[in-house]
Design brief:
Elements (H helix, E strand, L loop, with lengths): L1 E7 L3 E9 L3 E2 L8 E4 L3 E7 L7 E9 L3 E8 L5 E8 L5 E4 L2 E8 L3 E11 L6 E13 L2 E8 L2 E6 L5 H6 L3 E3 L4 E4 L3 H9 L4 E4 L1
Parallel strand pairs: 13-17
Antiparallel strand pairs: 1-2, 1-6, 2-3, 2-7, 4-5, 5-6, 7-8, 8-9, 10-11, 11-12, 13-14, 14-16, 15-16
Length: 203
């Protein structure tokens, strides 16, 4: 089976990596044309690289033991691809199912929802993670600071999520100072904001 390792412009990317029994990007061993022999396989490489881009054709000649390959990248700026193969000693390529897990993690300040894409290694049953991405990141609480400057109450910090409350308190957004400012007494503002469970008033 033949594969193309390629980069072209800012969008086209085609990569070939061995995931098992070790992680090995094949771009690291295909820098020259010719036959490349490893502990696990033999490949024939045709290298047509330019000064700026990779352009390589890789053909598997023989397989010495079962391996897992990942062929991935982007065909254009809007179309990506990701294919994982189990390859046996006879040279048979079997596509593996890419699974998705949605996981929620929380640290001191954020709750993050992640999508984890992986395949199950049919040789040993272990999970091989291909990539992760954050799909949602929400602050667990909002830190704000309340000060009095020139007789005005000034509120700074994580104010975007509570802007409606600040408007109710008769404060106005000042884009130059990046703060909410108004004549409402600071203690009144403090009491109102401290009544919101997600808000932490810092000094």
């Amino acid at each position: 089976m033949k594969f193309k390792i390629e980069t072209w412009g800012s969008c086209v990317r085609k990569y070939l990596d061995m995931l098992y029994p070790i992680k090995l990007p094949l771009s690291t061993i295909t820098g020259k044309s010719g036959v490349v022999e490893t502990e696990w396989f033999t490949i024939n490489v045709d290298n047509y690289d330019s000064r700026k881009n990779m352009n390589r054709e890789v053909e598997f000649v023989s397989i010495r033991q079962q391996i897992i390959l990942r062929y991935h990248g982007s065909l254009s700026c809007s179309k990506s691809f990701d294919i994982v193969y189990l390859v046996d000693e006879k040279g048979n390529f079997t596509e593996l199912e890419i699974k998705k897990e949605v996981k929620t993690e929380a640290d001191a300040k954020f709750t993050t929802v992640k999508e984890i894409y992986y395949v199950v290694n049919p040789i040993n049953g272990e999970r091989i993670v291909l990539h992760e991405k954050d799909v949602e990141k929400v602050k667990r609480f909002y830190e704000v600071k309340i000060e009095v400057k020139n007789g005005m109450t000034v509120v700074t910090g994580d104010t975007f999520e509570i802007k409606d409350v600040l408007k109710e308190l008769k404060l106005q957004w000042n884009p130059t100072l990046k703060a909410w400012i108004g004549k409402t007494p600071a203690e009144v503002v403090r009491q109102r904001l401290e009544s919101i469970p997600e808000v932490v008033v810092v000094t």
